[in-house]
Amino acid sequence: DVNNQGLPPDLQNRYDELIQKRKMETLTPEQYRELLGLSDQVETIEAKRVEAMAELARLRQISLST
User: Fold this and answer.
1) Structural domain boundaries of the chain?
2) 34-52: per-residue pLDDT in tens?
3) What DSSP state is assigned to residue 27?
4) In whole angstroms, how far apart are CA 46 and each of 2, 8, 24, 59, 61?
5) Which residues 6+ apart lie within 8 Å of 12 measured at CB?
6) Do residues 5 and 49 lie in contact, with contact meaning Cβ atoms separated by under 8 Å?
7) pTM for this model (two decimals)
8) Could you give the CA distance from residue 27 to residue 34 in angstroms, rounded to a whole number?
9) Cα–Cα distance, 62 to 58 (Å, whole number)
10) pLDDT: which is higher, 30 or 64
């Protein structure tokens, strides 16, 4: 069920690790490129999740804020 799924654990863990390195300013150029790629993946997954939630809300005739 796409509505209740978060990111895959391995993707989430690596993303969090790279975000932390960026905050600490210890991110290498290679890790920065990896972070950009992961950010694109995260954005795609989240967009699909929101689309699925909107469709489910439409089918149930409720708003997403309910």
Assistant:
1) 9-60
2) 999 999 999 999 999 899 9
3) -
4) 10, 12, 26, 20, 22
5) 6
6) yes
7) 0.74
8) 10
9) 6
10) 30
